Amino acid sequence: MSATIRCFSAALALACVPAIAQTPAKPQTMQQVLDASKPSDWRRPDPANTLYLDLAAGRVVIELAPDFAPLHAKNIKALVRGHYFDGLAILRVQDNFVTQWGDPDAEDAKKARSFGDASKTVAPEFERAIDKNLPFTALPDGDVYASQVGFTNGFPSARDAKSGKTWLAHCYGMVGAGRDNGVDSGSGAELYVVIGQEPRQLDRNIALVGRVVQGMEWLSALPRGTGALGFYEKPEQRVAIRSVRLAADVPEAERTPLEILRTDTPTFTALVESRRNRRDDWYKVPAGKIGLCNVPLPVRAPPAR
Fold first, then answer.
1. Which CATH number fits domain 47-253: 2.30.30.280, 2.60.40.420, 2.40.100.10, 1.10.260.40?
2. Average pLDDT over residues 3-24
3. What angle do CA 28, 157, 100 make, to 5 degrees?
4. Are 272 and 52 spatial neighbours (Cβ–Cβ below 8 Å)?
């Protein structure tokens, strides 16, 4: 056999050997992403900007957003330290919309609770200037209400490069300061939390002041009000507020220890991707996209050291 034929036969034999397929790594589920997270991927909320809303049923933990609403955060803390909310009530639970709390007698000058050192009016904080020093983790998919959406320090946010503005978005669990027609009438004495669909049409029309990080079940599962806009029609229907405290003013032994996943890390980016393309065994057709308000924001008890 000639050398040429031998070479051809050898090449043919090699060509017939099945290639070893490279099995792609199986995409991670959200739980796998969280299980692989590092301690540095998590942060503890600042006690100076964390509220404890205590009801008979349990505690609601609210993280304030002074980067977006500093005047409102300051006024709310003044109200809290003046015990303004203690003994007031949840006044309104509108199905698929909001739960709202405040003073039932706010419209009666003789009965209305005193604001103490807090202001009755606060300048509108519906949006703020984009700041390169304020972290922003953009989502890869589009949005109906803004040219770009993502997360800033754990809060769902939107931005518009043309106007140079950024703002918080009305996603589930976000807390806002109710107001009348006047843009400066939302003092923070009347607060609401989104409990249903994402009412994004409210963005840039009301100051969002924070979000619930634990205890949403105590606000979202309440009986719906039977009056207009979900207001309770009888005083006995209202849910009493035991107290609202700033975590920094609560003895450390009585605080609720929590860690929140940071939104400026590769771990959060991986979490977003795990939700955009659900590869859990149950899913057969991954969506390939995700909306701002569909991104979960994990919160956990600090692991034992």
1. 2.40.100.10
2. 49
3. 105
4. no
Q: Is the pLDDT of residue 47 over 90?
A: yes
- 3-state class (DSSP) for residue 214: strand
Query: Which residue, chain included where needed, has tokens 């976000």?
Result: 174
Question: How large is the average pLDDT for residues 104-123?
Answer: 96
Q: For residue 62, what are the β-bridge partners?
A: 51, 212
Tokens of 274: 């795990």
E strands in 128-273: 128-129, 137-138, 148-152, 155-160, 165-168, 174-177, 191-194, 208-214, 239-246, 259-261
Residue at 31: amino acid letter: Q
Residue of 164, 140, 137, 169 lying closest to 151 (CA atoms): 137
Task: Answer whether residue 20 shows pLDDT above 60.
Answer: no
Burial status of residue 148 (CB atoms within 10 A of its CB: 0-12, 13-18, 19 or more): middle
> What is the mean pLDDT of the segment spanning 121-141?
97
Q: Identify which of 63, 19, 47, 7 has the alpha carbon closest to the alpha carbon of residue 216.
A: 63
pLDDT in tens, 165-182: 999 999 999 999 999 999
- What average pLDDT does the structure give for the chain? 93
Indicate whether this model's pTM tops 0.85.
yes
Q: Are 242 and 52 in contact (CB under 8 A)?
A: no
pLDDT score at 24:
56
